[in-house]
Amino acid sequence: MTTVALQTKARDKPALEREHALHLLQEMVRIRRLEEKCYELYTKGKIRGFMHLYDGEEAVAVGVMQALTPEDAVIATYREHGQALARGISAGAILAEMYGKQEGCARGRGGSMHLFDKATRFYGGNGIVGGHLPMAVGIALADKLRGLNRVTCCFFGDGAVAEGEFHESLNLAALWKLPVLFICENNYYCMGTALELHQSEPDIAKKAASYRIDARAVDGMDVLAVEAAAREAVARIKAGEGPQFLECRTYRFRAHSMFDAELYRDKSEVQEWRKRDPITTFQALLKQEGLLSDEDIEEIEAQVQAEIDEAVAFAEAGTWEPVEELERFVYAENIPPEELYRLPPPEPPAAETREITYREAVREAMRSAIQRDERVFLMGADVGRYGGCFAVSKGLLQEFGEERIIGTPLSESAYTGAGIGAAMNGMLPIVEIMTCNFSLLALDQILNNAATILHMSGGLFHVPLVIRMGTGGGKRLAAQHSHTFDGWYAHIPGLKVLAPATVEDARGMLESALADPNPVLIFENTLLYNNKAELPVNAGPVPIDKAAVRREGKDLTIIAYGMALIKSLEAAEKLATEGIDCEVIDLRTLRPLDDETIMASVRKTHRALIVDEDWRSGSLAAEISARIMEQAFYDLDQPVERLCGAEVPMPYAPQLEDASIPQVESIVAAVKGMVNHG
Q1: Bridge partner residues of 155 (DSSP)
Q2: How far apart are CA 346 and CA 99, in angstroms?
Q3: Coil, helix or strand at residue 586
Q4: Residue 632 and residue 462 in contact, taking contact as beta carbons nearer than 8 Å
Q5: Against a cut of 0.85, is the pTM above it?
Q6: Measured CA distances, 253 to 123, 295, 572 (Å)
Q7: For 404-417, b where at least 16 C-beta lie within 10 A, e where not — what string?
Q8: Are 206 and 215 in contact (CB under 8 A)?
Q9: What are the residue numbers of the active site?
Q10: Residue 42 host element (H or E)
Q11: Please, is 319 exposed, middle or buried when counting C-beta atoms within 10 Å of its C-beta (0-12, 13-18, 19+)?
């Protein structure tokens, strides 16, 4: 496909009617005056942090919004004041947010870069360059899966074009023919670097067209040109023609942010662009057409000034959220039951059992969830025809089809972010990442979006997402495919982290995770996939908020999870033959930790050994040890000990790999050392 020329012919523009023309003008003036007031309030110390003003780009937001309906969705970058106001968020709610007041559109939790509003389907500004593009893909995917003829409009700047998420997202949107309208606000500077200095191909529409997306460049200083192009793009999307791309070539009159000294461009360049100011040039056109008088301008300015004055008064009168509510909106609260996955009613375990592997248990759980709730789908690389990297999803594509088992390219950031967007838009995705080392490619999405959006939006948007990934060493896969990052993710507020070690938990935890309104990560140690157990034929969901005592004992508590739990149980049986009676705790849930079960066991045995395959420094074992010292210090007969993975990249050679991970023999030796010392 080829890009369309920048010039928009007059006949392509909508016919000018006075009422609509005045509306466009007033909307642009509203944005300009709001930004001028924001600048003033920032200099007075009323607004702090990064603030990115929209002066000069008003025609883009106003023109595009004319093409959207209230049912469509909008997601934006950090320079989103203009889009938020044009979308329908009140100036008062925007200013109160920038003040940090709880009357703000995100209760003061987000600030200037993170404006949210559920009523207008404004999915927020995003402070990570390009970080919201995968979410836009997911929001649109959710609409398409449900057969809703709605558009997701995604605003971003030219700087985002250099990010991998830009390319991954455009590829997914085109591949799946998703109803996304990509709006690149090309203001010719990525922060302080000129476009021609950060892009080998500065024609951004041309880049988009390379993904077989209909793309055109439009004069972003001309509100009528933008409106015409946006209306045409939306019509194409709603006609089923797939994603559309508009490169709106515009210019920001002010600095990148309030911290920017603007040393990278001459004032003469800014003044030259000001001659094309979208407001003054539109006013001149309307006067020429006989559609605008000086009295009209005065009336618009008076109305806008009154609105801005009222907004400032609203923000000034706003209240600070009590410090006692600091920890609100880390995890979801008061979610309507109809939005949640409904677990099957509990029933007593059946007398009849069957032998099943860990792998089959996970597959059975996914099958049950997909059958039970039409909002559930599985997405990830090779989950379809390949059957999953570890054959966990084998056969599910044939059973449920491509709309429920969605294979993706190797684009971890894009498809994880798409899962987040789909979850925010009412779906219940299960995202599979082959192994946890690949999750680092999606860490931005997991940390900055999945774990954070509920808090940044003041509780408006929750993320009921499940992410499954393989974990652990011992498979002769060397340093890049043998990680144990479970504890890393357990460090992040906003996530819940599970580590099923038994076949029963493999079967039961996934559905319970789907029923949780928060993002849940499930780490499946790949050495467990072939483990077998007898389960009742009606085995189903299990609680995910408690650790489990897998073996009762009186001499010492071993605390473990995942594969280390299996080894610890074997070690405990060997120790029992020598008269050492160990209690073994299966953490099961790594965030939040079940302190109560841990401390009860430690108070009983007075000794604790934590077995963790992760590296020792900064490990989850260190956190658990600290908690025991804080909560049960006087119940200990000796210091807590840790048996962790060696602090080396995982070796390939078998003897070195075995030595780098806690083994049954090393657990036995550690316990004996503690008991003999005691």
Answers
A1: 183
A2: 48
A3: strand
A4: no
A5: yes
A6: 26, 27, 70
A7: bbbbbeebbbbbbb
A8: yes
A9: 412, 481
A10: helix 18-43
A11: exposed
